[in-house]
Fold:
Amino acid sequence: MCARVGGANTTPNLAAHFAKRNTKNCCGEKRSGENEGGQKFLPPNPLPFCPPERSVLVLPREARQSFGILFKMSSDFFQQTPPYFRFAEIIMKYTDRVYGDFEIGESVILELIDSKTLQRLKEVDQIGYPEPYFPGTTHSRLEHSIGVCLLLKTYGAQIEEQISGLIHDVSHSTFSHCIDYALGADSEKEQNHQDNIFDEFVRKSEIPKILKKYDLDTEYILDDKNFPLKENDLPDLCADRIDYSLRTAIVFKEIENAKYFIDNLLAENGKWIFKNFESAEKYAKLFLRLNTDYYAGLPSAVMLRTVGDYLRYALSKNYICGADLYTTDTIVLAKIEPHIKTDPKLSLLFDRMNNKIGFRNDPNDYTKRVFCKSRVVDPLCWHEGKLKKVSDIKPSWNDIIWQESRPKEYFLKFDK
Structure:
């Protein structure tokens, strides 16, 4: 028996099961040690979201996802199966824009997806604030997080590594990497604020309690050294990097689908390897184009800087507080919005953020110097019976790696 759920087709009875989440601001007065423009923001404890009243899966509409509910499995199955690998009575039928159709039945995965910490990510944009700069490209951190988990699942990663992939972005604040430009934390070049607070964020969340319920070790899952498929330093490949690049390429219509790359990708001995040089080079060139045009391009520099300035100013005026940064994009925008009409500087920053004011990039005449993290990959592939990197086969790629590994620098001056 399968009941289709989602969008306009949701039945009244099923719709009644969806949790009403409390998204009200819980900031109150400024806490001791809270720094509105300083080096490091940590989420409040407890987090400013209340847990769902019932465990019903709610997924981002923009990801073109659907799921059904299947009731199955006998009590004998649960008694004979390790807790972390038990299948729930609720099976999520999930359609991902990169990998296609899946059934997700592992209880721990389903409970994590439905947790307040993961559900928050469905209203945190993957890019930041894209519509004024890249219209039609909105997609969420939750979509990407589930995608990393599915990629690892597809290639046979252990359940702990799938979980590590699923939760890897939970410490992202609202507007994703724009936060690196709001806090004055000297993280613009690496865009690593969320990495710096990740362990503490997870420990403050309900995630450790969920993991303990399934006899899983939080410390083991927090240690990336245990999961070489999930995480690797640039320019090597990892599940996170593969997913966000293929997802970006589809969302930005650089490719129609990812089938060619997935069909030519292997996971062997903790390494991602393309079957041949042709597919490895094609992927490396696609990633380079994404970096040049989007990740580290001029429009992204303007978006990151202007959204960062808007948030920083709102923090300085106490229109929002640190805890708001760990709610959602919509909540933060709504909280600041009433002040736009009465604060001329905020209004100006809002217009800049929404790409309504002209600008130029000129190193000889600028008021804002902006750095963007730059990314490049050097994939492994099988070539003439040997395992090689693209740069081993094509030495000129080493020059591209050197050039693209450095942060991009822009010199902005707005018309007003």
User: Anything to note?
Assistant: The chain has a mean pLDDT of 84. The radius of gyration is 22 Å. Residues 63 and 190 are 27 Å apart (CA to CA). The first strand starts at residue 2 and ends at 5.
